[in-house]
Design goal:
207 residues; mainly alpha; two-stranded antiparallel sheet; 11 helices
Length: 207
């Protein structure tokens, strides 16, 4: 349903999940919702508050008088996404090493760097990190280096605060106390794609 939602509806979903990210990110069903939802962040963050709060004909109306939303009390999606990153700060390593959290973290990195895959038919993960069936039906790790080339991604402008959060995640994952785990992470099926996406995201911000 998310791809069919209006900016206003997507904004409401983001607002409803505020404060619950740490629980949802490891949920086998909720993690897929977060992964898809974060894919819309680069587009929504540039939407005006008027667009996010205007009343549409398609909106469901409750019986009786519906109170108008106080736009002055609504925080921008930029601040909301900042709060999401701050809520998860300190736990990026655990998230990266988790099979479900890995996909969500990659989506967060894409959102913070404004990256969107050019191939719309690409899976929700968007970075070619899925498994493909082998000759005899056995799963094998798909090669990801081709999909991670900068030419395969579109770039959207992102606010300065997003670049700061991206830097904070990069610093946490590359902290001295985690340095010894880098070799293990590079071979881990959940963590390795995150490292690939992080390198691409940081490179994108440097250009």
């Amino acid at each position: 349903l998310l791809p069919l939602s209006s900016p206003k509806q997507l904004y409401r979903v983001c607002r409803g999940l505020k404060g619950a990210m740490a629980r949802v990110i490891f949920n086998p069903y909720g993690s897929h919702v977060l992964e898809a939802l974060f894919g819309f962040v680069p587009r929504l963050v540039n939407a005006s508050m008027e667009e996010l709060t205007k009343k549409n004909d398609d909106d469901d109306e409750e019986e009786g008088e519906e109170q108008e939303e106080d736009t002055s009390a609504l925080e921008s999606l930029e601040k909301m996404f900042q709060a999401t990153c701050d809520e998860l700060a300190g736990g990026w390593m655990e998230i990266m090493m988790d099979a479900r959290g890995s996909h969500v973290l990659r989506a967060i990195l894409r959102a913070l760097s404004g990256l969107e895959p050019k191939d719309k038919a690409q899976p929700a993960g968007g970075d070619g990190a899925g498994a493909t069936a082998g000759k005899f039906g056995k799963g094998r790790q798909k090669q990801t280096h081709g999909e991670m080339r900068p030419a395969n991604w579109k770039r959207h402008p992102v606010p300065k605060s997003f670049k700061e959060r991206l830097g904070a995640i990069s610093s946490e994952l590359s902290a001295e106390e985690n340095a010894e785990e880098l070799s293990e992470m590079s071979l881990n099926s959940a963590a390795a794609p995150v490292l690939q996406m992080l390198l691409l995201a940081v490179r994108n911000q440097a250009e």
